[in-house]
Design a protein that fits this description.
- The structure is a single chain.
- This protein is an alpha/beta fold.
- The protein folds into two domains: 275 residues, Aminopeptidase (3-Layer(aba) Sandwich), CATH 3.40.630; 130 residues, Aminopeptidase i, Domain 2 (Roll), CATH 2.30.250.
- The strands form three sheets. Strands 1-2-3-13-4-14-18-16-17 form a nine-stranded mixed β-sheet, with helices on both faces. A six-stranded antiparallel β-sheet has the order 8-7-10-5-6-9.
- Helix 5 crosses helix 10 and helix 8 packs across helix 10.
- The longest helix has 15 residues.
- InterPro entries: Peptidase_M18 (IPR001948), Peptidase_M18_dom2 (IPR023358).
- Its cofactor is Zn(2+).
- This is M18 family aminopeptidase.
- It comes from Marinomonas algarum.
Length: 432
């Protein structure tokens, strides 16, 4: 695979994944195509040496792994972690709002959204709907309207003269999308049933019971810049890392026990049944190594590379960075370091990563937040704290994180993919 085809498939993955449910399903299909076998947590597992498997939870988190040998306590795992969710606007349960001659949608802010970036955008709706069929079964299905069916118009500057001096957006009153005028009949459940019938013609829908639906911008992911130096897209944080990790696992050659975990709910703390602060990963690992002593041995011979986007040096806001730890776009992935363990990187895991990157002639950068600013976090410290695996936090430099459109380098993802693929084939990590 060359950089051109890699980026082309990356853009397709981003466009096909408007929600964590769709991202997980897209990865699920790719794993099927690569010969991976799907497991169910409800069944008894029979893992064969040399096999390739994956399992999902809540349809929004996924773990995929290879098992070239079953004595994983002697080899350890080569783990790659990322998250499937992104900040967005989610529909409230009673979402239909009719006011002042318009049909609108009541929304709730999910994660740390840059709210103003959602104004004046062509928006669609996607997610999961739980329904009752005419035969009485309760099932869930994914839907994606794809078409731009909603918009949140900005307020004209004539009515807000201070707009260019900075203004806030009230998430209860000022971010409600408009669907259509009140002269048109509108019922949300009727609309959802129509969409279910359109996308799932085999269903005989009786009623909609509940839903988890998100708004998203319909503008496609694309390469931008005079020389196409940048990738511009929604949800780069963190579907970019999910895609890179997936490709690395698919190209791992099944030489070492390797595992990819992409979990939901990172943007709101990861505390859920399918989040990194939940039991999903440990449940899977303990089923693969049920002996307690061997489980601990396996963890201490393993390493996790937690991949999540990093803040690139913005030329218009350079003062927001420590000048000695200000990563540039298209200059390599970033090792994230924080003395207070907001990132799980230590000298040993950083050393292993630097060694592997050096073998691929891939540049390495380092990010430390300014000492007078707060530091974000990701799944690295959570996962390391839950299962005790040595961990490094890395990320691809990004502009506009948590905007409806984010920007990253078109060279960085391919380079990281090659490093992670080499990591999955690595024989030894830290010598003791």
């Amino acid at each position: 695979m060359n950089i051109s085809s890699f980026n082309e498939e990356l853009l397709s993955f981003l466009n096909a994944s408007p929600t964590p449910f769709h991202a997980t399903d897209t990865m699920r299909c790719a794993l099927f195509d690569a010969g991976f076998v799907e497991l169910s947590e409800r069944d008894t597992w029979s893992i064969e040496e040399g096999g390739k498997y994956f399992v999902t939870r809540n349809e929004s988190s996924i773990i995929a792994f290879t098992s070239p040998q079953l004595n994983v306590h002697q080899t350890g795992w080569r783990m790659i972690g990322a998250h499937t969710d992104s900040p967005c606007l989610k529909l409230k349960p009673n979402a239909q709002v009719d006011r002042f001659g318009f049909h609108q949608l009541g929304v709730e802010v999910y994660g740390g959204v840059l709210l103003h970036t959602w104004l004046d955008r062509d928006l669609s709706i996607a997610g999961r709907v739980t329904l009752k069929t005419q035969s009485g079964d309760v099932v869930s299905r994914l839907i994606d309207f794809k078409a731009p069916i909603a918009v949140v118009p900005n307020l004209a500057i004539h009515l807000n003269r201070q707009a260019n001096e900075g203004f806030s957006v009230n998430p209860q009153e000022e971010i409600l999308p408009i669907l259509c005028g009140a002269e048109n009949e509108f019922d949300l459940h009727t609309l959802l049933i129509s969409q279910l019938n359109k996308e799932h013609s085999d269903l005989e829908v009786d009623s909609v019971l509940s839903f988890e639906l998100s708004l998203y911008g319909t503008q496609s992911a694309t390469l931008v810049g005079l020389h196409e130096e940048y990738i511009c897209s929604a949800r780069l944080d963190n579907l970019l890392s999910c895609y890179v990790g997936l490709q690395a696992l698919l190209d791992s050659n099944n030489q070492r026990p390797s595992l990819l975990i992409c979990t939901d709910h990172e943007e709101i703390g990861s505390l859920s049944a399918c989040g990194a602060n939940g039991p999903f990963l440990e449940d899977v690992l303990r089923r693969l190594t049920p002996n307690q002593e061997q489980y601990v041995q396996a963890m201490q011979r393993s390493m996790l590379i937690s991949a999540d986007n990093a803040h690139a040096l913005h030329p218009n806001y350079a003062h927001k960075h420590d000048k000695l730890h200000a990563p540039g776009i298209n200059k390599g992935a970033v090792i994230k370091v924080n003395a207070n363990q907001r990132y799980a990187t230590n000298s040993e895991t950083a050393g292993v990563y630097r060694d592997i990157a050096g073998e691929e002639n891939y540049d390495v950068q380092c990010f430390v937040v300014r000492s007078d600013m707060g530091c974000g976090s990701t799944i690295g410290p959570i996962t390391s704290g839950e299962i005790g695996v040595p961990t490094i936090d890395i990320g691809l430099p990004t502009f506009g994180m948590h905007s409806i459109r984010e920007l990253a380098g078109s060279k960085d993802a391919f380079g990281l993919y090659k490093v992670l693929a080499r990591f999955t084939q690595r024989d030894h990590l830290i010598s003791r």
